[in-house]
Description:
The chain is an alpha+beta fold. Helices cover 31% and strands 23% of the residues. It has one domain (89-362). Residues 7, 9-10, 12, 61-62, 65 line the site of zinc ion. Zinc ion (ZN) binds next to loops. It comes from Pseudomonas helleri. This is HNH endonuclease.
Amino acid sequence: MADVKFCVFCGRPPESKNKEHVLPQWLLKLTGDPNRVVSMGYNYKSRTEISFSWKSLVTPACEACNTEYASLEGEVRPIIEALLERDYLSVANYCTLLDWLDKVRVGLWLNYHLLMGNPTGITPSFYINSRLRKKDRFVAIYPTQEKNAGLNAHGVETLSFHGAPSAFGLRINNIFLINCSSDYIFSGRCGFPSPANMQLHLDGESSGYLQMENFKSTRKIKSPIFKFQLHKPSVFLLQPIMQSVISDIDQSTTILGGSPARDPYLLASTMKGMQPGVGKIYRQFKDHVARLDDESAKIRFDTITGSECKPAGQLVSQVYELQTYLQGIYSPLTENLETRKHWNQRQKIMKQLNRSISKSYINASSPKR
Ligand SMILES: [Zn+2]
């Protein structure tokens, strides 16, 4: 990877030769030999597994960014260790975990982009800084029976992920996490303002821009918060995040759809001490939702029993189904019929690829007949 000319965090040209490990050394050591070559998903073109050394997964970063993110790594380490022990964590800890997952997800996206020779022909238009704590996000946590140590990322190899790094799975030894972050995927169901329409400009001056209109808010929580149904996780935490636009004229920030400074419901539903509009964390239980107001409150693992226990392959397959679901949330906007046709074809291919990967995971995990 000699040709990397941007810092993964801020996107500016890195002024020094700092190397950032997308997945930190401590995590590699925790999950096996840090020099090992591992499988990381599936190459849909050659129908082979992608394998390489985790340790080689480095990209340049500015010194300032590196230092800033090193502290996040320091904070998250005991959190991951607690998860592996099925120990409780605080709401604030989980907020840190969500930040870290934003970092890893976007970092892997930028890396894959380079590693796989840019299969979708995109130029990265955002970096880790611009996706950290910026869109609705969640983490679903599944303890597994896995006896062997190991680290695997799932879903980062798909065309769908290349288009938008919205959802991925991360297995760390005997724990499996599904992490997702995308535009307004459940803000509305937390009672936050949410656009009735989201349309993606496919061409013209606004190409790649998501047009969002008719913001409405119900000020009521609806269960389930997230409509896509996951197998029951031991911990399922969701955080709505209001988006902002920055004025070109005076650089002022406007939160879309409403302001926590003026709306008591939003004030009560957002966190203090963060950028305005970052929602509190909501916990989804089987039949109800709780907004977690106390940041020091302990979150314990819910037990999963009987038919709620799913084989690892079924848990992993959800990542691919989730990516397909997320693709359908916004509609394309173009006057050009050819462009629309091309878009539709691509959507279809992405869907088929994800379906076939999902199926292969399910088949691999079902008992042989
Ligand atoms: Zn930087």
